[in-house]
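User: Could you go from structure to sequence for me? I need the amino acid at each position, not a summary. Structure tokens:
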């Protein structure tokens, strides 16, 4: 078995907002820090995709930002190629963001945008060599060399996301975080961009962390899936297994919300994510869970191996009463 390109080891992130912010927002001083991510672990091998799903606010983006060094972890660590993350490894990890409008500088040409990571992170590279490389990158994402002289507003949403992908690949990274990369695009364009990303992965062996609230998209691209709830992984599973047989009650709830999956008579998803400043004791999902009992209200379940390479954090599953 090959060793992982990237690992998250017990990653945690707390955000403490300054007192002044709290007084303005709430008219009172802070309670405690917000736990955005807690004890998240996974690893991704070369050419593989780990899909991260969960509702808004579950901590997906924070995990993505931790993985590329945009946040410093409060606990745990990120390892790249077996080594702790350090600035020297920066060019090996890149990120593609959801909104290709906001993430591209409107005053720069496409050539400048795609070449910028090379200017920043490969300082030894000359101008001519950089131009050649940018031309190759544009071709790789299905754009022409002439497009290099144009500006972002001259492109459609899908083309802009191609530009973002070319920029992310400029330094030949081994790991790419893709945070809802197709969510802002028309449905007709989403599949094209996803297929492009899969082709590029196959050619280059890049490992992807693919973040999305859209399970249909995650299913299409992922080898393994992690489901987040209130900052924690509640299920980790090979992609096929999680869709065939979701184990955690929250995963089942998410799947029932996918159009076409809901059976007649199934109740629509109910309830809300807990207040991140004041999460429930025990299992954070217990207030919404049809299987919750006294133990679930008191004791937080750990992520434990179940059958078929699946890991689940659920007392009901562990006790066989699911
Ligand atoms: N820079 C920050 N400062 C303070 N709190 C933050 C910060 N970034 C995220 N949070 C909080 O951390 C929690 C997790 O947010 P995060 O954006 O990671 O969730 P998400 O699952 O990616 O949601 P979405 O799909 O809406 O982006 C939320 O409660 C959010 O308000």
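Assistant: Here is the amino acid at each position, in order:
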């Amino acid at each position: 078995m090959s060793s992982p390109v990237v690992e998250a080891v017990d990653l945690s992130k707390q955000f403490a907002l300054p007192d002044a912010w709290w007084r303005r927002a709430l008219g009172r001083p802070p309670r405690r820090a917000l736990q955005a991510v807690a004890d998240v672990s996974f690893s991704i091998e070369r050419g593989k995709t780990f899909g991260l799903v969960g509702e808004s606010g579950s901590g997906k983006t924070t995990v993505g930002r931790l993985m590329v060094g945009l946040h410093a972890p409060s606990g745990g660590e990120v390892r790249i190629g077996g080594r702790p993350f350090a600035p020297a490894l920066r060019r090996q990890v890149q990120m593609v963001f959801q909104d290709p409008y906001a993430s591209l500088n409107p005053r720069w040409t496409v050539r400048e945008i795609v070449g910028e990571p090379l200017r920043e992170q490969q300082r030894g590279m000359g101008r001519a060599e950089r131009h050649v490389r940018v031309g190759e990158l544009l071709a790789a994402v299905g754009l022409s060399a002439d497009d290099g002289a144009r500006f972002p507003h001259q492109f459609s949403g899908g083309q802009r996301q191609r530009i973002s992908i070319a920029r992310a690949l400029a330094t030949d990274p081994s790991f790419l975080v893709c945070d809802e990369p197709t969510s802002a695009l028309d449905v007709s364009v989403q599949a094209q961009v996803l297929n492009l990303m899969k082709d590029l992965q196959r050619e280059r062996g890049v490992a992807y962390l693919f973040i999305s609230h859209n399970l249909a998209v995650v299913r299409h691209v992922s080898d393994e899936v992690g489901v987040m709830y209130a900052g924690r992984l509640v299920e980790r599973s090979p992609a096929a297994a999680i869709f065939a047989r979701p184990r955690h009650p929250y995963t089942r709830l998410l799947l029932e919300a996918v159009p076409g999956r809901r059976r007649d008579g199934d109740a629509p998803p109910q309830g809300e994510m807990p207040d991140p400043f004041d999460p429930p004791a025990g299992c954070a999902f217990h207030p919404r869970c049809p299987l919750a009992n006294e133990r679930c209200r008191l004791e937080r379940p750990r992520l434990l191996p179940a059958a078929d390479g699946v890991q689940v954090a659920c007392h009901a599953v562990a006790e066989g009463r699911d």
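One structural detail worth keeping in mind: The mean pLDDT is 89.
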